[in-house]
Amino acid sequence: MAENQLIHVLLVTGRDQVSDWLMATLRSEPGVVLAGVAPSLERAAGLIGQRRIDVILLDASAPDAKQLERLQAIAATPINPAVILMTDPGDMAFLQQALFAGARGFLLKPFTQAQLLDSLRQTFDMLTQQRSALSTAAVAARHDESARVFVVFSPKGGVGRTSLAANLAIALHQERRQRVTLVDGDLQFGDVDIAVNVMARKSIADLLGYVNDLEPSLIESALIDHPSGIRLLLAPPYFDPALEVEEGHLAHVVKTLAGAQEGYVVVDAPSGLRESTLNLLDIAQRILLVTAASVASLRATKHFLELAAKMEYDDDKLALVLSSYRKEADVPLEEIERVMGRPVTALVPGDPLAMALALNQGQPIILRDRNHPVSKAIIKLARQLASGPASGEALKSEAGQGAAAPADRPTSAPMMKLLRPRQALGS
Prior knowledge:
The protein folds into 2 domains: 7-140, Response regulator (Rossmann fold), CATH 3.40.50; 148-416, P-loop containing nucleotide triphosphate hydrolases (Rossmann fold, 3-Layer(aba) Sandwich). It contains 17 helices and 13 strands. The protein has helices spanning 17-28, 41-47, 68-75, 92-101, 113-141, 161-176, 192-195, 205-208, 216-222, 249-259, 275-283, 295-310, 333-340, 352-361, 365-368, 373-387, 413-416, and strands at residues 7-12, 32-38, 55-59, 82-87, 105-108, 148-153, 180-184, 224-225, 231-233, 264-268, 286-291, 318-325, 346-349. Strands 8-9-7-10-6-11-12-13 form an 8-stranded mixed β-sheet, with helices on both faces. Strands 2-1-3-4-5 form a 5-stranded parallel β-sheet, with helices on both faces. The longest helix has 29 residues, at 113-141. The chain is elongated.
């Protein structure tokens, strides 16, 4: 076993003198962390993904220990812990069945502390070697080129960011026929699963306990295949305010994922600016900065562009996307470009009814109607992103024709609010 590697053990047993001895032994061993005690294999399976577990010590006397389908489900993916079965010498028939079902080792009762620790170390070493071999095989099988990372971000919510991310991922896959993974970057309130109508227990939370020794094979086991052909790395399906994520962990997962595949990784980043979001923006090849034509959204976008300049982001790194735009009702496009100081890369027309229906039914609009103006705009954006960095020429959707305004064009009163702070009350 490598130095400084702790073995996280989950004990599945009833409460008796043997279990008390096991708990005391595991707690006293410097190289072992007792991750918890569960009364059944079913309860143990529910803890996988919520905390780091390398080995499950399963007492054959546990109520459901002999339900082999549960043991097989745990052994099915390399990210799941290895199982060591503790059983009586007279139960050799079940022991053989358990080994065929995926158990990695066994201990015949009664056993000593030395035998217990040796079995734990040997099983952990075997698990580590297998994961490393799977990772090496995955690296050898993939192309040398890593996936490009596109982060869909808006400093203000309510602009259709998640719908755009989901539809863009599907459009990239349809247009390029390459592997595309859609990542929900909002670990607390993410709703990519709603946008694509997927319910699954696997999520980014399954990876957080392994982030310091993350392998591509572990990430692969947390991905979900979508009928559209893309893959998903979802936020946790439950709200957990105690879920602790170091600021750089999410970006590290995304970067490792991108390095393990070709094609594209599309990340739906949460609104607002936190350190974890800034880390995502840093690793992105392109940031799709999504805004609406409202004064509040445009002002927030303007502020972010000023921050991006201070962070020395290249102009090619940012792509300004104007969402839900209505040419007949919203601020003229050329005026928005003037105030933002950059061209709009993509203009997605507004159709609130169609977008709400698509989101509520969990069927992205590009799958419902590829000829819808919104779908056409997103497909056009996908083609531009796939072709490489922006050439300096803005991409316009069929909803309107925009061009940079002349330098001497007057700015309207609503847009002036973006350029100066409001007057203090009472002044």
